[in-house]
Write a structure and sequence with these properties.
This protein has ten helices and eleven strands. With 304 residues, the chain is an alpha/beta fold. The chain has a six-stranded parallel beta sheet. The protein has a three-stranded parallel beta sheet with strand order 3-4-5. A two-stranded antiparallel ribbon has the order 1-2. Helix 1 runs parallel beside helix 2, helix 4 runs parallel beside helix 5 and helix 8 crosses helix 9. It comes from Streptomyces kunmingensis.
Length: 304
């Protein structure tokens, strides 16, 4: 049995209560990099969650961090209305998503902000975050990434919270592990490496899995990433190498047009289309582990 609790927007729950987990997605997201594509409609978010529940979804982990319109105050009611558990995030994305004055205002207290949102709650919402989201760059870690990852590591050591990492086009995972798990002493099992399906480098994927970190294969159905046809082969290779227990799946819906209720694939696609294809490649038992057992372990914390 998995120990600890998963911190959802409705309170801490036993890991076994999560059901099928979309381990990386967004109900709300606003960024100057995506003008006109904001995820900020509460009614559409409710409909998307209901559509996900209708195909068997039990939990959604929202990776939207501080300053990007995560609408934390809306999340408990959405979870109650749809029966889908929601895990919220603290943390900070790449600098390009923020106004310079916002970054400057957090220069001295970033780790304290993360800890506060994990333990006391996100301002004006009462919702406590259940993970820390940070981001690297394309094949590199710039000063902003190192700053946010140091703050994330400090917050992890204070709370035990997992750290989820955006990798630009799936690159830079080993540099992230060197920093977080080497220099900053975060246990690899507390790190979730996002988007690794976007860089079909099986050697890097194997090395990352060997470290003990979780590999999130997320954002399927995106034409510019060509991930769907690569994903089964990569996951089979990792499973055959003994790393089936390191794998997670997510939808990573980041624009309004990508929602299923707006004509896109959305959250249901993960279970409606991706899951059957993976069952054919990996078998039902392994896919059940990836969707249910692994996320229960990845997001469970003995909260400090």
């Amino acid at each position: 049995m998995v120990s600890g609790f998963v911190r959802t927007v409705q309170g801490d729950v036993r890991p076994g209560e999560l059901g099928v987990v979309d381990a990386h997605d967004h109900l709300f997201f606003r960024s100057p990099l995506l003008p006109g594509q904001e995820l900020d409609d509460v009614g559409l978010a409710r409909r998307e969650l209901a559509a996900y529940a209708a195909v068997g979804g039990g939990t959604v982990v929202q990776w939207t961090p501080y300053g990007l319109g995560r609408r934390a105050e809306e999340l408990p009611a959405l979870a109650a209305a749809t029966g889908v558990r929601i895990v919220a995030a603290t943390g900070m994305h790449q600098s390009a998503h923020y106004a310079p004055e916002l970054l400057a205002s957090r220069a001295d207290d970033l780790a304290a902000l993360f800890v506060r949102e994990l333990t006391e709650g996100i301002a004006d919402s009462g919702v406590r975050a259940g993970l820390i989201k940070v981001a690297g760059g394309f094949h590199a870690l710039d000063a902003h990434a190192r700053w946010t990852m140091r703050a994330a590591a400090e917050a992890h050591h204070a709370t035990g919270a997992p750290i989820a990492v955006h990798h630009e086009l799936g690159t830079g995972a080993l540099d992230v592990l060197d920093l977080l798990c080497g220099e900053l002493a975060v246990p690899a099992r507390r790190v979730i490496l996002g988007h690794l399906n976007r860089s079909p480098d099986l050697v890097t994927q194997r090395e990352a899995a060997r470290s003990g970190a979780y590999l999130a294969f997320d954002g399927p159905s995106r034409a510019n990433h060509a991930t769907d046809w690569r994903m089964p082969d990569a996951m089979v290779a990792l499973a055959e190498a003994g790393y089936a227990d390191r794998l997670l799946l997510g939808g990573d819906t980041t624009t309004a047009g990508a929602r299923s209720v707006s004509g896109g694939p959305g959250m249901p696609y993960l279970l409606r289309r991706v899951r059957p294809r993976l069952v054919e490649a990996l078998g039902e038992g392994t896919v059940e582990r990836v969707l249910v057992g692994n996320p229960a372990e990845a997001f469970a914390v003995d909260w400090a």
